[in-house]
Design a protein that fits this description.
Layout: E1 2-4, E2 13-15, E3 24-27, E4 31-35, E5 43-49, E6 53-61, E7 66-75, E8 78-84, E9 97-104, E10 109-116
Antiparallel strand pairs: 1-2, 3-10, 4-5, 5-8, 6-7, 6-9, 9-10
C-alpha cells in the first residue's frame, strides 16, 4: 500500500507493506502487544525490547498521515509500556475507525492495526 504524506509534498512517498490489511506486520524480534483492541478510551502498548536503542512509536491513519507521536527516545533493553488515549498530536479525539501503530527500532519495524470504536 502506498501512502502520500501531504505535509511533505509528492516528493515524499512512504510505502508501507500492509497487504491484505492484516492485524500484524512484524519484521522484528521485539515483542509487541496492544490491549484492548478494539478500544474506546485507552489502549496499552506493551513492548519487550531485545536490545537498547532509539524507539519511535507513532500512530498513523489509513492515508498514511501521522496522527500521534507516542515515543521518540532511546530505551533500554526490556519491558516498556505506553498508553494511547485516542487523541492526535493536537490533543483532539480521533474518529472511530482503523489506525496503524508503527514501532521503529534500530533494526526492526512492527506495524499493528488499531481499531477505535466509540
Amino acid at each position: 500500500m502506498l501512502f502520500i504524506n501531504p505535509s511533505n509534498s509528492l516528493a515524499s512517498l512512504t510505502r508501507y507493506n500492509i497487504s491484505e490489511v492484516s492485524d500484524n506486520i512484524n519484521i522484528s524480534k521485539d515483542l509487541v502487544d496492544v490491549f484492548p483492541n478494539p478500544f474506546n478510551m485507552n489502549t496499552k502498548i506493551s513492548l519487550n525490547l531485545q536490545q537498547d536503542g532509539n524507539v519511535r512509536i507513532f500512530v498513523f491513519d489509513v492515508l498514511g498521515r501521522e496522527i500521534k507521536l507516542i515515543n521518540n527516545s532511546n530505551l533500554k533493553k526490556g519491558n516498556h509500556s505506553f498508553v494511547w488515549n485516542g487523541v492526535d498530536n493536537n490533543n483532539n479525539l480521533v474518529c472511530s475507525g482503523n489506525y496503524f501503530l508503527r514501532i521503529n527500532t534500530n533494526n526492526s519495524v512492527t506495524v499493528k492495526r488499531l481499531v477505535v470504536s466509540k
